[in-house]
Specification:
Largest sheet: 7 strands, mixed
Number of helices: 13
Distance between the termini: 58 Å
Oligomer: single chain
Helix content: 25-40%
Radius of gyration: 25 Å
Strand order of the largest sheet: 4-3-8-11-12-1-13
Low-confidence stretches: 1-19, 400-407, 415-442
Shape: globular
Bound molecules: zinc ion
Strand content: 25-35%
Mean pLDDT: 85
């Protein structure tokens, strides 16, 4: 019995450890037939076909070139031929190990964790990053939103974490959890910014749930233009927490306004040929030439605005038509960028700037949803984050243009946060508001 319990305990531990990691396909949109891999930090053990040790403790004095050879991966290290294997695995020997990936003709990206390389059915390299879940989330946040205040990143981390947990099996049939593109969530590099790591860390254990405690879908867009959209007006289903709300916070931001100029003929002919509207009918013609939205509408002359948006590649469906009778030109004058459902990222940036708390922001955009805080959430990666931040700041001190005093200040604060008791005293993740001087501006 004791032995059985021990085995059960071991299995539970093994399960919880693996649930903290995810597998993400890298360069999902690219065909890769040659990649050079080097090592920025720490060392890696390289295995072929799962169990053959190709080379141990490979560090920054070596680089590995991989190419497909039939259905196998050919390995060369520092120019020496090491043969071909069904797969090649790079296993990090420490928690802080960084890989530099240089596929031919693509920009370098760096990632943490392990890497597995095989050949897909098209004869191209398939790269899968096995990485700590929260490290993935920080990389997603860095890829998905801009800004300078940790609370912006805290909001993005909560919605990205919620999405990831809800969609953890999105690519399960292909042998990984997520791709690195917007089909899942953009994950275009490891997170290198302390302010983003801090925002992610401060939200650790937080997700968004509906009224019965289920994880919600968390769609977001760049800018709502002043009003978000109902889910059923963009997609099919009416979702209770995806309701249209007024959103003046999205005004006067980078993506608040857009215009597109077209000829009158092009505009009218589109509705005539594609949607069979009688453009010689005065009332139809009038509506097409003077269509206006002070609040969001769903259709123009019965045609879904989502169709018009796709066909004309418009930034949003939230536009009005201005007709110039002398030039016979149409100006589409639009608000916002994106589908408009759920959270507006630029609205979030503005709200954080106004001092509105991260939970109020989430409640504003996801009607009736609640933030769930898992107090049992392991704090190991919080520790990891702080160490990583410390390390990055240390490395950054060598850059002459940086302010050392600012970084020391950050470092001091972060180390104080590392003390668990002091963290709970200084910072309660459910209620704490950030001081202004947490802003990271270098
Ligand atoms: Zn995907």
């Amino acid at each position: 019995m004791k032995r059985l319990l021990a085995i059960l305990a071991f299995l539970l531990l093994a399960f919880s450890a693996s649930a903290d990691r995810v597998k993400v396909r890298l360069f999902s949109n690219n065909s890769i037939d040659l990649i050079n891999i080097s090592f920025d930090l720490g060392t890696y053990d390289i295995y072929g076909s799962d169990t053959t040790l190709i080379e141990a403790s490979v560090g920054n004095d070596k680089s590995v070139e991989l190419t497909p050879q039939g259905r196998k991966v050919h390995v060369a290290i520092n120019g020496y031929d090491y043969g071909s294997f069904a797969n090649v695995n790079f296993l990090a020997t420490d928690t802080a190990c960084i890989l530099c990936l240089n596929p031919r003709q693509l920009k370098q990206r760096t990632y943490e964790g392990n890497l597995s390389v095989s050949v897909n059915k098209n004869g191209k390299l398939l790269l899968i990053n096995d990485v700590e879940f929260e490290t993935y989330i920080a990389g997603v946040v860095q890829s998905e939103i801009y800004g300078t205040q940790p609370d912006i990143f805290r909001v993005q981390a909560i919605i990205s974490r919620t999405w990831a947990l809800k969609n953890i099996n999105k690519h399960a049939s292909e042998g990984y959890n997520f791709c690195d593109q917007v089909h899942c969530q953009a994950y275009l590099n490891r997170c290198v910014r302390p302010d983003i790591m801090l925002g992610t860390m401060m939200s650790s254990g937080m997700t968004i749930v509906d009224s019965v405690g289920q994880l919600i879908e968390t769609p977001f867009h760049a800018n709502s233009g002043g009003q978000t959209a109902n889910s059923e007006d963009v997609w099919r289903a009416a979702v209770p927490y995806l309701r249209s709300v007024p959103d003046t916070f999205s005004y006067n931001m980078r993506q608040s306004e857009w215009v597109k100029v077209l000829s009158e003929d092009k505009w009218l002919n589109y509705f005539s040929s594609k949607h069979k509207l009688d453009i010689h009918n005065d009332s139809i013609r009038n509506e097409l030439l003077s269509f206006s939205q002070s609040t969001r509408k769903v259709r123009i002359c019965g045609v879904p605005l989502t169709r018009v948006r796709t066909d004309f590649q418009l930034r949003s469906t939230f536009f009005s038509v201005i007709y110039d009778t002398s030039s016979h030109r149409i100006t589409l004058s639009g608000h916002g960028f994106g589908h408009g459902v759920g959270l507006s990222q630029e609205g979030t940036i503005r709200m954080v700037g106004l001092g509105i708390s991260y939970d109020s922001i989430i409640h504003h955009y996801y009607t009736g949803a609640e933030i769930h805080y898992d107090e049992t959430h392991p704090h190991t990666y919080v520790e990891n984050y702080i160490n990583k931040i410390a390390q990055i700041i240390e490395e950054d001190k060598s850059a002459a243009t940086r302010s050392v005093s600012k970084k020391d200040d950050w470092l001091g604060r972060l180390f104080r946060l590392r003390d668990r008791e002091e963290r709970e005293e200084v910072y309660d993740p459910k209620t704490d508001e950030l001081d202004e001087d947490w802003q990271y501006d270098w």
